[in-house]
Structure formats: C-alpha cells, structure tokens
Amino acid sequence: xxxxxxxxxxxxLVTGACFAEIGHEVICVDCDEAKVxxxxxxxxxxxxxxxxxLVRKNVKANRLRFTASTQEGVEQSDAIFIAVPTPxxxxxxxxxxxxxRVARDIAAAMDGYKIVIDKSxxxxxxxxxxxxxxxxxxxxxxxxxxxxNPEFLREGFAVEDFLKPDRVVxxxxxxxxxxxxxxxxxxxxxxxxxxxxxxxxxIKHAANSFLALKISYINAISILCEASGADVTEVANGIGxxxxxxxxxxxASLGFGGSCFPKDLSAFIKISEHLGYDFNLLKEVQRINTHxxxxxxxxxxxxxxxxxxxxxxxxxxxxxxxxxxxxMSPAIELxxxxxxxxxxxxxxxxxxxxxxxxxxxxxxxxxxMDQVAEGCDALVIxxxxxxxxxxxxxKARKVMTHPILFDGRNLFDPLEMERxxxxxxxxxxxx
Length: 431
Ligand code: UDX
Fold this sequence. Notes:
Distance between the termini: 58 Å
Shape: globular
Number of strands: 14
Bound molecules: uridine-5'-diphosphate-xylopyranose
Oligomer: single chain
Radius of gyration: 24 Å
CATH superfamily of the largest domain: NAD(P)-binding Rossmann-like Domain
Helix content: 40-55%
CATH class of the largest domain: Alpha Beta
Structural class: alpha/beta
Strand order of the largest sheet: 3-2-1-4-5-6-7-8
C-alpha cells in the first residue's frame, strides 16, 4: 500500500520504517526541514535499537522516503497516519493543536478517497473531531474515513514491538476502511482487534494507566516489604506466576517516568473528569509514584546525613534502559534533588549523556561506567541498564571514599553486596 506518516518523532519514524520493511511504499512527512534533510542524508535523530539499519535498508530499496510537504505525502498515499505530538497542557489535559493543524493540512491536500489514521495518543472522542475538521476543510466531493490505531511501542524496543505486536487495535466508524487496514498490517500476522473509534482511543489510555498502576502497586508493596523484612522481588515472582497477574511491569523502582506514563495518567484523569468520573484510583497511582522517589531520596539523606560537599556517583540518566530519552526521567529528577542539597555529582549513562547535558548542568560526565565511582562518598543506580550489573564492584569499592550504594533498580543481590563490604540500600528488600 502507499502510506504517508505525518510526524517523524519516535512513533512516526519507527512506524514508517517498519511499514516499509513489511513491503509498503512509505513517505514520511515532517515540518522540520532540517530533520528531513538529516534523514535524507542517512542520519537518525533518535537512538532506537535497530532503527538506523531499517531506515537505511528501506531508503535504499526505494520503499521509504522523506519530505517536508504534507501535500506531497497526502497526494501520493492511500492511507495517511497522523503521528504528531500531543503534549500536556499545564493543567494535565492534552494539547491537540498539532492534531487539528495536521487534520486541516490533510483536508486541504486531499484529492480523492483517503483513510486518515490517528496513531498519536489522544483523548477519547478525538476521532470524531478529526473527522469533523476534515469534512469542514476539504473539497466537498472528497470522501474519506477516519480510523484510530493507537501505538503500544516501548522506547528502546519499538522496532521489535512494532514487528511483533501483542495486538493491533483498529477503531473505525464504518466497515469501509477495515479491509485496507487489515492489508496494511497483514504481513505481521498479528491478532487484530476491530472496534469503534471511541473504544480504540480509550484502549490506549486504559492500557498505559493500567501498566502504571501495576508499577505503583508493586512500589506500594515494596514499602510493606521494607517494613516487614520481606523481599519485593520474591513477592513479584510469586504473584507474577499467576497467569492472571503476569510478572511483567512488577519491577519495584524509584518510580516510573518517561514521555508516556506520567503524561497519559494526567490526561486520563482529566478525560475522566470531563466525562463526569473522578478517577481517584489513578490519582493514587501518581501519588505512590511521587512518594517512591521521595522515599528513595530520604534513604540517601538518612544515610549520608549532610549532602553538601559530598561527591555522589550516579549510574543512569535515561528514564529507563535502552534509550537516550531523558524526558521526565526519574534519574534526572534525583540528580537535581541531590544537587539542590549541595552534592557534587559524577554521572554516566551509556546513551543518554548528550541529551542530559541540555538539562543537567554542573555535573561531571565521565566516559565509562567504571570511572563513575572514583572518589565518591556514595554511588546511586537510577536507570535499569543491564550493563550496570557488570560493574566491577571490587574495583568500585576500592576507588570510593565510602562503599555505599543506593540501588533504585534492584540490580544487585543484597547478600552479595554485603559480602563485598558495601552498605547497600535498594527498594523493597527489608533484609
Ligand atoms: C510505555 C508503554 O509501555 C508503551 O506501550 C506505550 O506505547 C508508551 O509508554 P515507554 O514509556 O517507552 O512505554 O516505557 P516503559 O518500558 O513502559 O517504562 C515506563 C517507565 O516505567 C520507565 O521509567 C521504567 O523504568 C518504569 N518501569 C517499568 C518500572 O519502574 N518498573 C517496571 O516493572 C516496568
């Protein structure tokens, strides 16, 4: 099929490259001409495992190209995916101005029947508004269908998630676009859920909120574990083996972050409010998440007492493993809190240091993870990069002023850490 993707952020670029990979002819549109030029020259504006190879391969095969012209994208495609940002407004609700703008641009460029598919995360009932907008701004005789097709891509695993999805959700107003949408996703051989647009839009917010709830749930359990001498990892394993619960997203941590969960939770609370329901359960999910960061920070304060003049090494700046993304990163928030107390920071992240530099100043960025412990009063693990498990702990212990390690991601075994001579504080492990 001929496909246009409007917006080449994380979602748009991964979607475009993967559609090309499964055989479609894809044109990616972005209003940022510098980005289009970079992509045309073979550059990738983000770190996402596997993406660069995929883009290069499909550009070479003439299945993927880039343009700054929405008109060109629309004219040359049968299916047009909207993948533009839907950032939060100060009150937590969603800024839909990019979606509205794109809907108008698509309408103005439409020259025949098109399927307009929303992939951006939007409040329920947005599809109705998009259809209304297109109808208002398009040439009167042109026919179109609006579809909701939410994405469930995790950063760092986006290509894998796209090519091997648990399910593809397709929300439609009528049956006309269903066959074409099934053709678009056919090569993936994935389960396809066809539903109405409002349900599809709700599925996205309901899924992300549920996953955030799962993390807050285990983080709340971690408090009980600390108070009782139990181990949260054991509890997670024990409850996770129940197929109705599942082990994934039960890793206790210093809290979730990123560009999706915090934003989607706030948005869903607002959406519910508009629909007349006070979603207190989700407010509690947010509260537990903030509390978890407070608790971790307090552990550091209680142990080190005064932070002023102390040197702390921080491993991890990205909001999670496998990404260079530092937006709403708990690691960055923690660094800033430590700095506010007067601590001197020495930091390392395998991928996120370049992006961190723009928001985290007056810290020493070191080149390797082994350098981070040098001369430190304490070490903090803030991101669950698997490579941190390979840290040479004996060496770290030798170069540190004091062997104290705060593990916000439970990467190490408490008994082993004790054996190595560390004062080791992690999450929800009371022993
Ligand atoms: C999420 C959803 O998983 C994805 O389906 C959606 O499309 C976008 O939002 P993402 O934000 O990339 O993806 O990250 P995810 O892997 O879900 O992690 C979110 C946050 O939760 C991270 O800060 C991560 O460290 C934290 N987390 C995750 C935990 O603290 N514990 C866990 O068990 C899992």
